[in-house]
Amino acid sequence: MEFSVLENKIREYYKGDIEIVKKAYDFSKKAHSGSKRKQGVPFFVHPFNVALLLSSWKLDTASISGGLLHDVIEEREDLKEDLKREFPEEIVRIVEGVTNIKELENEPRILRKMENLRKMILATSKDIRVIFVKFADILDNLKTLEYIGEERGRRFAEEVLQIYAPLAHRFGLSYAKGEMEDLAFRFLNEEEYNRIKSFVDSSLPEANKVLNKIEEDLKRILEENGIKARVKGRVKRIYSIYRKIKSQGRDFDEIYDIIGVRIITENVKDCYAALGVLHSKFQYLKEHYFDYIMMPKMNMYQSIHTKIVYDGGIVEVQIRTEEMDRRAEFGIASHWRYKEGGKERENFEWLELLYEWLNDEITPEEFFKNLKIDLYYDEVFVFTPKGEVKVLPKGSTPLDFAYRVHTDIGNHARLCKVNGKVVGFDYELKTGDKVEIITSKNSRPSPDWLKFVKTPQARYKIKRFLREKSEI
């Protein structure tokens, strides 16, 4: 827990002043002095581990300082004014945001979940870094679930799989999502976890041998075609393998079930050049090809996905640039990078829509139904008449599209055309559809629309209009 360990991690990507991190380190260490975690280790181990995780995501000094201090107010409320006096407002805001996200022991379970999520999402609306610290906090706590009791541990692990891991996915933090899923799954179903892990561990020598061969072959083929790229193999995560088993209704039975390959190029042009080379050299599965570079996912993920036949097995291949690879691992966190003259943040459409949706007056049950749609949906990619791509949940209708474009277009939709043909408002959109909404100033939402729209955002906007007109 020496500061030099954290300092060295930060220095891997940032050479500026980190005095505020040292100050937070000293303040937190002193505040938690003498306190121990349930497993018997000094309490400060936890905030220190959180800070290390945040530095591994290459976050700024305010985020890392917030990680070091995130438990101070909860554990030492008498130090709240000292913390406000000693640290900048942005760090205090992060700490207070994380502190406000607490488990509400005396409330019914669904109300507790809803209130916790509401607090977390509202806290991120004030400072997105709150969610980074909370994810790091959850990840470290998942490693010690056995010390908090079976019932509480299971409840926490279930909420991680149902809510926090999908949220991490929506924020684009694939590393955090994968770690959360594996750790929670291990606690909830240790027997199945160990069975899959045993297969993976026993298969590693052969898997690494196969991956090395694939990497060498692909590097050679790309070099022969003048394409500069890194090729890296990977063994899939335990929970990812488990989900594949459940979805396909079969057990894993070969090395190709647990491995995948990524090709990392210098630019987008080379991504498509690499794809062309692959498809000319190997048989590929057309139904498993998808271009997320041309049509990015809502969490900013970009990559080309394809599957090729290699030595009698089917290998999943992802092709993307270096920047896309960083974004795939760290998602929205990759936009909190140190840059000359300040930090950069990009608008995150899904999060903005979620803030708006939270204003709807709904029951806890409807809240979680809508949240599940927003977190778990498969996506479809449709086009506006001008060729712009809109990402929507699978099963979305032209009205969902209309409200995604603009509230006024949805509220005044008269009829819609898909690929040039008039269709009903309840038509289910498919990837590649070109959608046109014809509006009229005399058109207005109908209560019947609530029966078939898919997105929580569309439901919220329709209900808001009808409420204002006293129709519901």
Describe it for me?
- This protein is of the alpha+beta class.
- The protein folds into three domains: 3-188, Hypothetical protein af1432 (Orthogonal Bundle), CATH 1.10.3210; 190-331, Beta Polymerase, domain 2 (2-Layer Sandwich), CATH 3.30.460.10; 350-468, Beta-grasp domain (Ubiquitin-like (UB roll)).
- Helix content is 53%, strand content 13%.
- It has 20 helices and twelve strands.
- The protein has helices at residues 3-11, 19-31, 45-56, 61-69, 72-75, 80-86, 89-99, 109-126, 129-142, 150-170, 174-188, 190-224, 238-248, 268-281, 322-330, 349-357, 364-376, 398-405, 407-411, 456-468; strands at 229-235, 259-265, 290-291, 304-310, 313-321, 338-339, 342-343, 379-383, 389-393, 413-418, 421-423, 435-439.
- It has a five-stranded mixed β-sheet with strand order 1-2-5-4-3.
- Strand 10 (413-418) and strand 11 (421-423) form a beta hairpin.
Radius of gyration: 24 Å
- What is the multimeric organization of the chains shown? single chain
Question: What structural category characterises the helix and strand content?
Answer: alpha+beta
* Highest-level CATH class of the largest domain: Mainly Alpha
Task: Give a quick summary of the entry.
The protein is of the alpha+beta class and 472 residues long.
Which secondary structure elements does this structure contain, and how are they paired or packed?
Layout: H1 3-11, H2 19-31, H3 45-56, H4 61-69, H5 72-75, H6 80-86, H7 89-99, H8 109-126, H9 129-142, H10 150-170, H11 174-188, H12 190-224, E1 229-235, H13 238-248, E2 259-265, H14 268-281, E3 290-291, E4 304-310, E5 313-321, H15 322-330, E6 338-339, E7 342-343, H16 349-357, H17 364-376, E8 379-383, E9 389-393, H18 398-405, H19 407-411, E10 413-418, E11 421-423, E12 435-439, H20 456-468
Parallel strand pairs: 2-5
Antiparallel strand pairs: 1-2, 3-4, 4-5, 6-7, 8-9, 10-11, 10-12
Helix pairs in contact: 1-3, 2-4, 3-4, 3-9, 4-7, 4-9, 7-8, 7-9, 9-11, 10-11, 11-12, 12-13, 16-20
